[in-house]
């Protein structure tokens, strides 16, 4: 009888976002938003979110009916189906990698076959397919995540987090594909998808990659309790494109977030700030914004999280039309 290799660090622990204790769904939305993905240059590898999409499909189809996910041919086929939609030219179709390395996430545990618990625990890298099936009976999800995935609405919300965060440019193609293959899926675009949990995930990642520094003025203040002066601002509003990728965001202090939302300032595709021509430099507050003109946008050290050029062009266009 296979037994789960459980560790205390993988037990569900509630999280605080703002001053509100999150629900299990919100907690796992945040976990899905901030997966430990491989990064090569400015590209995030798609393997882990694709694996989760495949798992959710098999749960939806009742192929997976208990909390044990084997590395089956059906899982590999489902993975390949999504992978072919979202892959970049240098991505390899290797579903064994996310199945194995997902163990770095708090919600995924390998269940060893009888007598192989210690071997599985000490494996330094992903084994081959035959060896995986010999040593690992399957993956077990956190029980609260498993319960979330039994509910149609919660499953749809988690699926939407993955698409909005990792594959916003493929959103329509993925949604249409999912709707065609899973006729009972919750496929409307309800307000619940834009949940506090996911917003917390967007804010957490954007603020972290900008190291709590405003992309406009450079101010950085972080209190001992973790509070910070910057917001995570969407460059294109989430309501416009359902794009929750960090590259559609930047960290801005309250003043510059407010100013950008009102088309008083905007970042351009060449990473310079422009200002609204209606501003008057005789007014102290407006002069501060005018002085920003031509200055470089402060960007994250990690190129994978630099603001998207198309999003910057959209924001610049909004200012020109104002």
Overview of this protein structure:
The protein is 42% helix and 11% strand. It contains 14 helices and eleven strands. The protein has a three-stranded antiparallel beta sheet with strand order 1-6-7. The longest helix is centred in the middle third of the chain and has 15 residues, at 152-166. The chain is elongated, with a radius of gyration of 22 Å. The termini are far apart. Residues 214-266 form the HNH nuclease domain.
Oligomer: single chain
Q: What's the number of structural domains? A: 2
| DSSP, total strands | 11
- In spatial order, strands of the major sheet run 1-6-7
Name the overall outline.
Answer: elongated
Mean pLDDT: 88
Q: Approximately how much helix is present in the residues?
A: 40-55%
Radius of gyration: 22 Å
Q: Which ranges are low-confidence, i.e. pLDDT below 50, for 5 or more consecutive residues?
A: 1-20, 186-198
- Put simply, the count of helices is 14
User: What proportion strand?
Assistant: 5-15%
Q: What is the rounded distance between the termini?
A: 67 Å
List the secondary-structure elements in sequence, H or E.
EEEHEEHHHEHHEHHHHEHEHEEHH
The SS-based structural class is: alpha+beta
Sheet of most strands = 3 strands, antiparallel
